[in-house]
Design goal:
Oligomer: single chain
Distance between the termini: 81 Å
Radius of gyration: 46 Å
Largest sheet: 2 strands, parallel
Shape: elongated
Helix content: 55-70%
Strand order of the largest sheet: 1-2
Number of domains: 4
Length: about 500
């Protein structure tokens, strides 16, 4: 019994009522106080105290005040005296309880083993359940509660082992026993691997877990082997088995040994299956991250700007015009360099489609045997896309890319400047918050959507004074969680 009681709890639980005073009768002194405390204790706990110290001091002082006996007198009350035994008998008869018999103890053991031990593994809670059951059966709890609990736990364990072995079958039982047979190195290695975690994410870990899972499946454990027991009970047997060495398994009884191995292998099989899924997901994410870093590195290299493109392009154009009959390697490479030209091509490919489009145009012109003629300017002349004119088309492509980059930068600067002034792009909203709230309130009152659209009026913008469309009203109401019935269409 708890020792800390508030004054309110003491009054509510330890006050003597009319029937209690009839039992007290003409008792006096220590006997009077001891009887009253024993009576109230039994009403609360369903048992008698083993020691005087079990009764809270606050209760002793309160009851002593009720019966007009000094609280110090309770220390003189002897629980083993003849008067105390008579008091217990009188209390049992008054509350219609009886002492527990051997038959009662056997029934309580069976009840604990079948109902409590399979789902409750903490001994103190098993003890509490036993006391509650004794109270429900109007039985004074036996004095050998520890022996009853131990017998019930043993009976429950044996029943659990028997059910497990029956479900395993002879073949699977033989395979489990072979795991811990002395000299079986493969079985010892399997048990050791089952106790290890997957380790770091990687292909080796994945393959190791797959091998481990295949080895466990070779045991042939039946599906739903432990479907008849609680997860807490199975976890307890697994935790017990995972700490044991093969020699420890051999030291246990055969039925317990089989059940321990089955619990370990079955639990680990399920855990490895789940771990494989997590490991595979983590491995894919790792591969994706590595691939992304590699692609980003490659793109960064390709997107590297070649400085002074305009000057380079003009040099190329000047060389192409000055030496129209020379081949590219002889006419252009000495002016710019092969590496610079390759960098220009890579940048053009990475930056956009302008260069690709111009080169496609050049290919079309070459395919149709059409030449490009510039009528004015410093590059006046006729250029063949398949000959020395190819350099000029490359120059145009570079200029187009430069112009596109310039336009893009200016557009971004203009958008940023507009945002700083509080101006944002996009169409103005037709519906404001007040109109949306009004539409939802109408809808909540059961007004059809077309009728709601006729009641709303746009208050701003170029459509001010007009009514929103039915589709607009549906979009407003779509933000609500409740489904919106669509209108029926009649032919």
């Amino acid at each position: 019994m708890r020792q800390e009681w508030s004054p309110e709890d003491v009054i509510a639980c330890w006050t003597l009522v009319d029937g209690d005073w009839d039992l007290v009768a003409n008792k006096a002194g220590t006997t009077r106080l001891g009887f009253c405390l024993m009576l109230k204790f039994f009403e609360l706990e369903g048992r008698f105290p083993d020691l005087l110290e079990e009764i809270p001091q606050a209760a002793v002082e309160y009851v002593a005040g009720l019966v007009k006996v000094p609280a110090a007198e309770f220390a003189k009350y002897d629980l083993a005296s003849r008067s105390a035994k008579n008091h217990r008998k009188q209390i049992r008869e008054a509350l219609k309880f009886r002492p527990a018999t051997q038959a009662d103890e056997d029934q309580l053991i069976m009840w604990l083993a079948d109902e409590v031990c399979p789902v409750e593994l903490v001994e103190n809670r098993q003890r509490d359940a036993l006391l509650v059951e004794c109270r429900a059966r109007k039985i004074e709890p036996p004095g050998r509660i520890d022996r009853i609990l131990a017998a019930a736990q043993s009976r429950a364990e044996k029943a659990f082992c028997t059910r497990t072995i029956e479900r395993l079958g002879q073949v699977c039982t033989a395979r489990l026993l072979a795991l811990v047979t002395e000299g079986n190195e493969d079985g010892t290695a399997l048990l050791a691997s089952l106790k290890r975690d997957p380790g770091a994410v990687g292909l080796d870990s994945l393959l190791t877990e797959i091998t481990k899972l295949n080895d466990v499946r070779k045991l042939g454990l039946p599906e739903g082997l432990f479907a008849h027991c609680s997860e807490r009970l199975l976890a307890a047997w697994r935790a017990r088995a995972i700490k044991m060495y093969p020699s420890d398994f051999r030291d246990t009884a055969e039925d317990v040994r089989i059940t321990l191995l089955a619990a370990l292998c079955s639990s680990r099989q399920a855990e490895i299956t789940d771990a494989l899924a997590d490991l595979l997901i983590a491995l894919v994410q790792k591969i994706n991250a590595r691939a992304e870093r590699r692609v980003e590195k490659q793109l960064t290299a390709e997107l590297k700007k070649v400085r002074g493109k305009e000057g380079i392009f003009f040099k190329l154009a000047d060389a192409a015009v000055g030496k129209p009959d020379e081949i590219v390697r002889t006419a252009l490479y000495p002016v710019v360099g092969e590496k610079t030209l390759r960098d220009l091509v890579a940048e053009a490919k990475a930056n956009g489609r302008g260069a690709a489009e111009l080169l496609t145009i050049a290919e079309d012109l070459r395919h149709h045997d059409i030449q490009l003629e510039l009528l004015t300017g410093p590059l006046q002349g006729v250029y063949d896309p398949s000959g020395h004119g190819a350099a000029l088309f490359a120059f145009f492509a570079g200029m187009a890319e430069s112009e596109r980059e310039y336009i893009r930068e200016k557009s971004l600067e203009g958008q940023a400047s507009a945002r700083e002034r509080g101006r944002h792009g996009g169409r103005p909203k037709v519906v404001d918050d007040d109109m949306a709230a009004y539409a939802r309130s109408l809808r909540a009152n059961g007004v059809p959507v077309p009728e709601i659209a006729r009641k709303l009026v746009i208050t701003s913008g170029k459509n001010q004074g007009k009514r929103p469309s039915v589709a607009t009203v549906y979009r407003i109401l779509a933000e609500d969680d409740s489904p919106i019935p669509q209108p029926e269409h009649h032919r």
